[in-house]
Amino acid sequence: MALIPSSDLVRAAAAAQPHVAAIDLDERLARCAAMRSALERVAGAVVDAAVAEAGQPRRFARREMQSALGLLDALPDLAAAIRPVPVPATSGSTLLEWAPYGVVLGWHAANSPVWVPTLVAASALVAGNAVVCRPSSRVRRTTGLVLEALRGAWPGDAVVVADLGGPEAEPLVWDPGVGLVVAHASSATCKRHLAGLGRAYAAGAPLRPYIPEGSGNDAMIVLPGADLDAAAAAAALGGFANAGQLCMSAKRMIVARAVWEDFAPRLAAAVSALVVGDPDDERTDIGPLAEGPARARARAALAEALAAGGRLLVGDGEREAHFTPTVVVLPRSALGVALWREESFAPLRGLVVVDDADEALALANDSPYALGAAVFGPGEAVVAGLRAARVLVDEGPLYQDAHLVVGGVGDSGFAGARPKVEQMVWARRVHRAGGG
Known about the structure:
Layout: H1 8-21, H2 25-41, H3 43-54, H4 58-78, E1 85-87, E2 93-100, E3 103-107, H5 115-126, E4 130-134, H6 140-151, E5 159-161, H7 166-169, E6 180-184, H8 187-202, E7 210-213, E8 218-222, H9 228-240, E9 250-256, H10 257-272, H11 293-307, E10 311-314, E11 318-319, E12 322-323, E13 326-329, H12 338-341, E14 348-354, H13 357-365, E15 369-370, E16 372-376, H14 380-385, E17 390-393, E18 409-410, H15 420-423, E19 425-432
Parallel strand pairs: 3-4, 3-6, 4-5, 6-7, 8-9, 8-16, 9-14, 13-14, 16-17
Antiparallel strand pairs: 1-2, 2-19, 10-13, 11-12, 15-18
């Protein structure tokens, strides 16, 4: 791979970045309020665009907007971690400071066209960076409206939009002018980016952190003593919101045998009550699933799971433009099927019945993905042992709280659940002799 010169997009952001960095941190944080007001002013248009472009049910699109606004409210608290602080010194004084990387490239996915670009752009700017944002071509208007609202509080080209298809945009990942990459994408896409970076490094590109926010295959565990009605409602919303196209959805349901007979009808009823239909209808929970890779994989995964001995608890797979919310109960002999081993980015979920909490924990951890997990019922040993960066206890997977940060390890990511603003800076220690 030949080392390419920095693109015009990156150069424009790089020219604006010193002006952002020169703004005092408290003033940058004050601009969060301006960003929030600007985003709230266009909230209606953004929601309309998300419904039209991404097929998000209107209620879910409003929910994502509220998550984005909540993130902007929380950023001043989250940014406390990047304030300069004195640290111990054997003589004189040492100050721990935090410096921006320069230009941050945000690689955004189609399934979260509002919250993800807000998270990346606002965190980068508050940390003193400029940002080049590459929205998915499927949601360019939705994400474009969000970024246009956010950029007004900042000088020049502090926010640059790279309206490029995937293959055209990938060279930005190893552009020599980019200091940091944050990619919300499938784990396969993140690994492809890393492979490209490796080739670019060999050709002389400067090193830069790459923060992958990849796929998830989150477990939801239901144990004896759980509130079964609450668990069933959480599984329905947490498993199937946005047609199941969320990294933090409950994708692998694990239920203790002692509660299975009581839980099964509750789960079937909660999932059956979800309204499948027009995303523009206020009553709709599940919109259509577009024909494409996610639908094709769901079609194949359902057929494989049933052929391996799985049985339908609720749902029947494809129905015209929609993929109905479907739960397949899998025998232990079928846990090698794609529905269990890989992320299902569709309203299709696998469920396994286990004998006890130890078995539930072992099964939950038996995955290369480690994004999140939810546990219903008394099970502190399970909670303590989970290999997941975002754990919810007696709470649904889609619990909204900007302080409960999303992030993973393993094939889900590198950094775990660390606030993005903390990852947008590098540490600098300045020592002064004599305590001056």
